[in-house]
Amino acid sequence: MSQEGRGQLRIYLGNAAGVGKTYDMLCEGHRRAERGTDVVVGFVETHGRKHTAELVEGLEVILRAKIAYRGTTFEEMDLDAVLARRPEVALVDELAHTNVPGSRNAKRWQDVEELLDAGIDVISTVNIQHLESLNDVVEKITGVPQRETIPDAVVRAADQVELVDMTPEALRRRMAHGNIYPPEKIDAALTNYFRAGNLTALRELALLWLADKVDEGLQRYRAEHHIRGTWEARERVVVALTGGPEGETLIRRAARIAARSSGGDLLAVHVTRSDGLTGADPAALAAQRRLAESLGGSYHQVVGDNIPEALLTFARAENATQLVLGASRRSWLSATLTGPGIGARTIRGSGDIDVHIVTHSRMGRGRGLPRSRGGLPLRRRLAGYLLAAVLTPLVTLGLVALRGELNLTSDVLIFLMAVIVVALVGGFVPALLAAVAGSLLLNYYFTPPLHQLTIAETNNVLALGVFVVVALLVSWVVDIAARRTRQAARASAESELLTTTAGSVLRGEDAVTAVLDRVREAFGMDSVTLLERPAAPGGRPPPGPADGWAVVAHSGEPVLATPDGADVAVPVSDTLSLALRGRAVSASDRRVLGAFAAYAGVAMEQQRLSAEAEAARPIAEADRMRTALLAAVSHDLRTPLASAKAAVTSLRSPDIRWTDEDRDELLATADESLDRLDHLVDNLLDMSRLQAGALSVFPRPAGLEEIVARALDDLGPPGREVVVEIPDSLPEVRVDPAILERVIVNLTTNAVRYSPAGRQPLLTASALGDRVELRVADRGPGIPEPDRDRVFVPFQRLGDTDNTTGVGLGLALSRGLTEAMGGTLEPEETPGGGLTMVLSLPAAPVLGHPGRADPGRRERGQVPSPPAAAADGGKLAT
């Protein structure tokens, strides 16, 4: 036992069968046993591999539990025996395995959870194709659906995950040498699932998935130890976008930089700033976002008045190693007047983050005057003070030199122009100082008596007074305009942020998490947590600010348990609160956070309503099915009941003496009616179980020709014949034999019913990679292509008005049963006319299953079939 309480889980992760996961697991078991650790083998599947089986020797093996199912005995891990033995370490193979029905748990990983909860360390194995999140990806690559899957969270929660890696060439050599599959299976495996391309893709999936898990652990370690510096364990390239025309050039250049290292990440970020008059074009940003995502990157948006600081904060939060910026579009005059630009200031504060300044066709083509930032930041106010201190003495010196050529009115106007320039640059306060200083200089140097702070003429007093008033009014108007511009820009930035968030939420699957991610990125927080506490009776929250809080969703680390531990807490409702950790926010930011909090509450409510609607969907479907069942019982089942009842009543009648021939005919009528009734009820019950998800299906390897033989035997009394062509070399299929037999009976019965006289239905089978196809073809009238999917709708008899032969469940039930076994059932047109039902089934991974019957006369022969009345339903939809 590794620790008190819960045990530790170690997983050997492989990219395909045969890479050596079980071998490495057993080797680790021997190493621990040699060190004195109490190790047992809970369950190991050697698959007949000699070297693997040899490693089991020397280890204590817990006997397997034997479970009977459908007349066959299966072996599973004896969970109770392992718990009773209570070793320090248990070796449990095939973590994604599905247990036989009747076991305590449905999945083996659930057995492992019980062992871990009991304090037992577990070493297990799993292949990358069994992870739930990669199921559809693996099916697209290999063409084989994986029925045995395991939630990613189970593997991610493991204390150790070790990759068992092998190159495709080495794995194919192992296969060719017979070290993985028996000789009969080697050629098929090498030409299908074990193709070099498939193995390369699976290997890449395994490497990338494990890299993501390692990255999660690294980020968690950095957060726990408060490490803010960049660790270049993995290349992360951040590209800064302004919405300008150079954006696409920057994204492509950043993508090439990220592609230089395997597994590099591309992150595009746009900083929304107080620049309402020169804001980014939303359409251009949307196009650049699509480009970044098409190149495998992600798009982010943050808010910050100091753009270099916002960029570097985001880059460090994402552990970025490189930052890509575009060369400035400002002209030389603008750069001269405003000093270092964003690129230079970003480089100055970048530290260990590499900054790339990328040239483009638009650089240096900005306006001649500097662009206003839409407000009066500190840099502009300082520039205003400096300009006031320099400009007023210079103007005074110039006017003193021109004293003989200009009068007092001209001097006042020139000083007024200087004050307006100061107001435009630095706002009201620097302009006020310039106006006061200008009035004193005018009085001292240009108003008689000169060089004295007195005014001899009333007209001059009025002129100086008007100068001061006009200067203050102009400065006040300039300052108000700057404030209004800043407010409008702030509103525009907030609106743009909310719009972008709404778009990301609509495109995503988890609306609540998307909102929290956007809040964390936009406001530069370490973590954002949505907390909820249950409402007390009457709808009021329970007393106490920290009572009963539960985490609904979160983004970032650490996860907060109560709003009390947050730097910022925004109430959403009486029972919901948004808790943020990272920094304090301004009042205006809290207003935006309030909108986000409300958005998160609405998103959570919508998510719950969607979940409730999804949960109610099976109920509605069950109601619909129940209504259809009642209709079927009230009409379609009445006929066989009435026939059987009439026959039995006639036989029991004391008033009539029946001949032996009549008695046999009545008994045959009753027997046939009851058989039809039994068949219909079986179909109804099975369809109900399928709809409710309660039909147990357990596939196992079986010979297809044996199942076909039994199905044709069950068709009933001799009628027209069925031609069967099944090759001897056909691999076994992994199915539930009893259920597949029933599917074949349904399909063959329909084919017989609609085949014209002298044109027997044909059953053929062939192997296609890891699948086996069984085709049931008839020469009947066929079905138009637009109507083919309708034949699989329950209680549907396409084009059939005969309600006495079934309730229209045969094909609907057949497709449901086939899909439950991991197969597919699709209709096709028979060449030359008619309809072919294509039954595609998974091939068994191991050949040589015992009990395969000799098809005898059914292979390439002719087999009797029942009359059309034996079918359950109408045309091609029994």
Helix amount: 40-55%
Distance between the termini: 59 Å
The amount of beta strand, in percent, is 15-25%
Average pLDDT: 76
Give an account of the 3D structure.
The chain is of the alpha/beta class. The protein is 47% helix and 15% strand. A six-stranded parallel sheet has the order 3-2-6-7-1-8, with helices on both faces. It is elongated and about 150 Å long. The model is unreliable at 365-374, 538-546, 797-808 and 846-878 (pLDDT under 50).
List keywords for this structure.
878 residues, 25 helices, alpha/beta, six-stranded mixed beta sheet, 25 strands
Short description:
With 878 residues, this protein is α/β, with parallel strands linked by helices.
Task: Write the topology of this structure.
Blueprint: E1 9-14, H1 21-34, E2 39-43, H2 50-56, E3 60-61, E4 65-69, E5 72-76, H3 79-85, E6 89-92, H4 108-117, E7 121-127, H5 135-142, H6 152-156, E8 160-164, H7 168-176, H8 183-191, H9 196-224, E9 236-241, H10 247-259, E10 265-272, H11 282-294, E11 298-303, H12 307-317, E12 322-326, H13 332-338, H14 342-349, E13 354-358, H15 378-401, H16 408-426, H17 428-446, H18 458-507, H19 511-523, E14 527-532, E15 550-556, E16 568-571, E17 576-581, H20 587-635, H21 638-652, H22 660-692, E18 700-702, H23 704-713, E19 721-725, E20 733-735, H24 737-754, E21 762-768, E22 771-777, H25 810-820, E23 824-829, E24 835-842, E25 861-864
Parallel strand pairs: 1-7, 1-8, 2-3, 2-6, 6-7, 9-10, 9-12, 10-11, 12-13, 19-21
Antiparallel strand pairs: 4-5, 14-15, 14-17, 16-17, 18-20, 19-25, 21-22, 22-24, 23-24
Helix pairs in contact: 1-2, 10-11, 12-14, 15-16, 15-17, 16-17, 16-18, 17-18, 18-19, 19-20, 20-22, 21-22, 22-25, 23-24, 24-25
